[in-house]
Amino acid sequence: MIGISVCRQTGALVANLGWKRPFEDPIPLPRGRQLVTLEDAGTFITKLAKAEHEAKEWQAAMEALILVATSGGPTMFARIGIMRALNRSHVREFNLSRKDQRWGRRKLKRDM
C-alpha cells in the first residue's frame, strides 16, 4: 500500500515508495545504462567489485541511498552521492589561458 508521509528534512509530502522511488532525472552510467530508481542504484553499487565497493565515496553514496529510501528524504541527496562516487577519479583542469576577469577593480576618482 502506498501512503503519503512528510519528509523529515524538508517537510515536503512524499509518497512512501521506499526503494521504488524514482530519481528526478535518471543517472547516466558509463556504458549507456541509466539508474532510474533507488533500487536500481542499490543493486548497481552492490554489484561493483569489492575494492571499488569499499571506496569511501561509494560507502557514502550507499549511506545516503539508505537514508533516502528509509526516511523518505529528498532523492537529490542520493543522486549527489552517486554522482560524486561515479566521478571520483575525474580531476578538474585549470585553464591558464583563460582571461582573468577583474570585476569591481576599476580605479575610482579618489584613488587617482
Overall description:
- 37% of the residues lie in helices and 15% in strands.
- With 112 residues, the chain is of the alpha+beta class.
- The protein has a domain at 18-86.
- A two-stranded antiparallel sheet has the order 1-2.
- A hairpin with a 6-residue loop joins strand 1 (4-6) and strand 2.
- Helix 3 (56-71) packs antiparallel against helix 4.
- The protein is extended, with a radius of gyration of 21 Å.
- The chain starts with a strand and ends in a 26-residue tail after the last helix.
Question: Can you summarize the main beta sheet?
Answer: 2 strands, antiparallel
- Give, in order, the helices and strands: EEEEHHHH
Fraction of residues in β-strands: 15-25%
What would the principal axes of the Cα set say about the shape?
extended
- Helical content class: 25-40%
